[in-house]
Write a structure and sequence with these properties.
The complex is a heterodimer of chains A (about 270) and B (about 375). Chain A is an all-alpha fold and about 270 residues long. Chain A has helices at about 5-30, 45-50, 55-90, 95-105, 110-125, 130-155, 160-165, 170-200, 205-210, 215-225, 230-270. The longest helix of chain A is centred in the last third of the chain and has 42 residues, at about 230-270. Chain B has two domains: about 10-245, 3-Layer(aba) Sandwich (Rossmann fold), CATH 3.40.50; about 250-375, Nucleic acid-binding proteins (OB fold (Dihydrolipoamide Acetyltransferase, E2P), Beta Barrel). The model of chain B has no long low-confidence stretch (mean pLDDT about 90). Classes of the chains: A mainly alpha (about 270), B alpha+beta (about 375). Bound molecules: adenosine-5'-triphosphate (ATP) and magnesium ion. Adenosine-5'-triphosphate binds near residues 50, 52 and 96 of chain B.
Amino acid sequence: MTRLSPFNVVSLTFGFVFLYLPMLILVIYSFNASKLVTVWAGFSTKWYGELLSNDAFLDAAWVTLRVAVISSTFATVLGTMAAYVLVRGGRFYGRTLFSGMIYAPLVMPEVITGLSLLLLFIGIGMDRGVLTIVLAHTTFSMCFVSVVVSSRLMTFDQSLEEAALDLGASPFEAFRLITLPIIAPAVISGWLLAFTLSLDDLVIASFTSGPSATTLPMKIWSSVRLGVSPEINALSTILIGLVTIGVIAASIASKQSALRAKRDEQAAARAQ
Amino acid sequence: MAETVFAPWDDPDEKPLIRFRNVTKRFGDFTAIDDLTLDIFAQEFFALLGPSGCGKTTMMRMLAGFEHPTSGSIELAGSDIASVPPNKRAVNMMFQSYALFPHLSVWDNIAFGLRRESSDKDAIAKRVEEMLKLTRLEKFARRKPHQISGGQRQRVALARSLAKAPKLLLLDEPLGALDAKLREATQFELMDIQEKTGTTFVIVTHDQEEAMTVASRIAVMDEGRIMQVATPDRIYEAPESVYVADFIGDVNIIEGQVKAASDGLFQLSFADGQPPVLAASETPFYDGQNAHLAVRPEKVSIHTEQPDASDNLLQGKVLDIAYLGNLSTYHVELPGGQVIKAQTANTRRLSRRSITWEDPVWISWTKTAGVLLDR
Ligand SMILES: Nc1ncnc2c1ncn2[C@@H]1O[C@H](COP(=O)(O)OP(=O)(O)OP(=O)(O)O)[C@@H](O)[C@H]1O
Ligand SMILES: [Mg+2]
């Protein structure tokens, strides 16, 4: 292992401080006994307890989770299908328009996406609630899924599908048995991306939700406007904790699968 | 017992299994297959030979259903197959790139096609084991494709395409990555399979010897066109063009003007100060016509002393000797600068060889040794 030069140490420190100091402060203050955010009055976990008995927050968390799971699943299915058609469909009439349109929401300001969806829902007389948020999130996150999946499909060796067809598989079987298992990692990361986007989203959800459904980011945002409360800090700390666990789990899993592949290869080399 | 020769192409009543009729295939404005007409008969072992990029894989892909002719039609067993999708054709293809399924084991790769048409587990297992045995892959059945060597992968691809015992099997360079011994064994294995199952094989190869060994007929292609289709011995002994003569094996091409000598005999003057060479030809040539005489090196004899009279006798000196183990090829330069290759079998040890560089030698061949070609 090489030693870091003083310059590198300094820049690394600054970088990390810049990234993590705000979060660290948030975490520390979530254990503050005082209600005043700026005054430290000793260690306490009482805000976590209060959070658990705060139905408004729990409801919002439940809505967010449902919306995220359902919309990212729909987005993954639709986005994968769109990517498949764009990469494999060959030249069909209107292809350029279709591919341009599928990527447009990526660069569209969220305010515009949200506003146009709102107008649509009002126009067709749809009551705003969980369903409309799910639809809205599906709409904007499927573009991200389709970008991730189509970049994988572009490097996918098409002769594998041809070989499957040649051996008597129907086009759908070829997709299900050959293409999908091979591109699965890209599809899964597409799902994760859609899931995080949906968890994160404040703007589009604000436009498309109704009185019956409030997501967690909306709840946090609206209560912060009344003043930062230690409860919010506690909630954010929990979210940070969850995300950290998720990231660590994912990296352990990928490391282990890499190890397994390496073991396989070594076993193969020995047996030859 | 009278053995009948397998030659359905000579029988006008025989219906071909595959019929290409004026097939043209263009990619954009590039013509990959150019007005190709060809019949391939059931139970043939048909070899496609030609330089890289001449359209061999494209022909196979049209048969398998992955490309469609720009014009013309392809018939399989008498019916046009344009509208039949690849998964409904009784054709299996071994891909030049193998196209093994990376997430499936060798066993599952081979079983893939069988599982699509039957759910009888025991029958599938039996067939897969058979294929593994045939291709000597038993030890590797549980490995993934990335865990085996290139030659082993090629054998998996072969086993996978053979497993369904299709009516027509397309093999795109099936043996390129195998070592000489295994290749020879697999060639005989293929011929054996072909005899047992009656499957029709179309095989692409870059290896002429392989084509000669396995094929019932060979098609020599160039730039999307078929130059000649014939049995291996006809291709070798009676090429119809300089291109075919030159493509298959080693050959001396002597260019000159013809003059009729007597019945079916022609004199070819090829250089000033050299006597014309004599060649027999069934196709007629007119006096003064430009022609090429193609003579295989092994039909040219080399002598250290002037031999008795021969049809064609030329004097020159040894320019180069290529030692090939069992054979030696002598490059003999004639006074006019032409180089003629003569090949002899090395029946003696090298140290006893009597001819070396710069030696004056005589070369000779008979009037029927070569083929006179107009193009
Ligand atoms: N999809 C395609 N688009 C454009 N050109 C193509 C396509 N497929 C093949 N070609 C061209 O058609 C010609 C014939 O290709 P083909 O793959 O049939 O060659 P081949 O005879 O199999 O060569 P090799 O011996 O190198 O495999 C080549 O010049 C190739 O570049
Ligand atoms: Mg090819």
